Amino acid sequence: MRAHPYGLGATAIGTVVEEHPRMVVARTGLGGTRVIDLPIGEQLPRIC
User: Fold this and answer.
1) 38 three-class SS
2) Residue 33 in contact with residue 27, Cβ under 8 Å?
3) DSSP three-state, residue 7
4) DSSP assignment letter at 5
5) What does the alpha-carbon distance between residue 34 and residue 27 come to, in Å, rounded to a whole number?
6) Is the dihedral of CA 7, 14, 27, 34 positive or negative?
7) Contact in structure between 17 and 26 (CB atoms under 8 Å)
8) pTM of whole model > 0.70?
9) How far apart are CA 9 and CA 2, in angstroms?
10) How far apart are CA 26 and CA 9, in angstroms?
């Protein structure tokens, strides 16, 4: 992705792990975790 001129600033923003299947989980500032709910009725932007 970084080889393309539009992808020069691309970076990974997360990882896929087995401990949280089919969920998006954010790490809090205190080291805990929080499940991020899918917005109902809203479309998500394509970031891939």
Assistant:
1) coil
2) yes
3) helix
4) G
5) 6
6) positive
7) no
8) no
9) 7
10) 22
Q: What is the CA radius of gyration of the chain?
A: 14
Distance from C-alpha of 36 to C-alpha of 38, rounded to nearest angstrom:
7
Q: How far apart are the first and last CA of the chain?
A: 10
**Residue 8 confidence (pLDDT) above 70:** yes
Nearest CA-CA partner of 48 in 4, 19, 7, 8: 7
| Band (37; pLDDT cuts 50, 70, 90) | confident
Q: Which residues are CB-neighbours of 33 under 8 A, at least 6 positions away?
A: 25, 26, 27
3-state secondary structure of 47: coil
Q: Which two tokens stand for residue 3?
A: 């080889």
Judged by DSSP in three states, 8 sits in coil
Residues in the chain: 48
